[in-house]
Amino acid sequence: MLCATTANDGHFGPLLPFARALAAAGHEVRVAAPASYAGAVTRAGFAHEPCADAPPELIGPVMGRLPTLAFEEADDLVIREVFARIDAQAALPSLIATIERWRPELVIRESAELASLAAAERAGVPHVHVCIGMHEVVSRFAEAIGDPLDELGRLAGLVDGRLRAALASETILSLVPEVLDRASGQAAGSDGFMRFHEPSPPISSHRLPDWGDPEAPLVYATFGSVTGSLPTFAGVFREALDALADVEARVLMTVGRKLDPADLEPWPPNAQVEQWCPQNAVLKHAAAVLGHGGFGTTMGALAAGIPQVVVPLFSFDQIVNSEHVAAVGAGLSVGRGPASVAPASAQVPRLLEDPRYAAAARRIAAGLDNLPPATDAVPFLTGLVA
Question: Domain 218-369, what fold?
Answer without folding.
Answer: Rossmann fold (3.40.50)
